[in-house]
Amino acid sequence: MLSRCDTMAWVGWIVGALASLPLSGCAVTKLGATEADFARGKDQASQGSILFEQECAHCHGSRGEGLAGASAVLGPGALPEFPRPDPTPGGTMTDPQQIQIITQTRPAGAPWREPFRNAQDLNDFTSLHMPKDRAAVLKPDDYWAVVSFIVVAQGGQIPAGGINPTNARSIPIPKR
């Protein structure tokens, strides 16, 4: 049985050991767009950044990090691909358990769709499905402005004047 002094010594040693651990392991990494990319998006696609803040941020987060079931649209891992690529060699998945796992890991309510390859794909999806509670309420130019903002804030390049129906297929969606 430890005496009071021994117990206090152990407590002191534990507290000292914990205090000496580097705090960098506990640092919180901000999700979503980096400060630099977010600022560049606001600068190059200002109308889109305003619309993103008004129409998208309440579900997707102010930095596009994704909130409460809404997917991330900016930053690492943003704009996820559904259906996910077939992980089996040759692309022919037949294992029922693997199919079930992939089906169950798809976020609830996420529509099955082809991956976003270019700005046209992103615009087609957003103009049909977003904002979720008021799909297709924005004007076509508003959707193009938001897509321009997302591409720039994701680290991509857009032409002067932004993305529009004539150039959208040639503008890739940056992956982070």
List the helices and strands and how they pair.
Layout: H1 4-20, H2 35-44, H3 46-60, H4 96-105, H5 119-129, H6 140-153
Please characterize this protein's 3D structure.
- By secondary structure, the chain is mainly alpha-helical.
- The chain has a domain at 31-79 and 116-170: Cytochrome Bc1 Complex, Chain D, domain 2 (Orthogonal Bundle), CATH 1.10.760.10.
- It is 44% helix and 0% strand.
- The protein contains six helices and no strands.
- The protein is globular.
- It starts with a helix and ends in a 23-residue tail after the last helix.
- Residues 5-27 have low confidence and may be disordered.
- CATH fold title of the domain at 31-79 and 116-170: Cytochrome Bc1 Complex, Chain D, domain 2
What is the chain-wise order of helices and strands?
Answer: HHHHHH
Please tally the helical runs, counting DSSP H or I stretches of 4 or more residues. 6
Can you give the mean pLDDT?
77
Look at the structure and give the CATH class of the domain at 31-79 and 116-170.
Answer: Mainly Alpha
Assembly annotation: single chain
- The CATH superfamily of the domain at 31-79 and 116-170 is known as Cytochrome c-like domain
Instruction: Detail the poorly predicted runs.
Output: 5-27
Shape: globular
CATH architecture of the domain at 31-79 and 116-170: Orthogonal Bundle
Tell me the structural class. mainly alpha
Number of strands: 0
C-alpha-based Rg, rounded: 23 Å
- Give the fraction of residues assigned to helices: 40-55%
Distance between the termini: 56 Å
* Biggest sheet record: none
Question: How much of the polypeptide forms β-strand, as a percent range?
Answer: under 5%
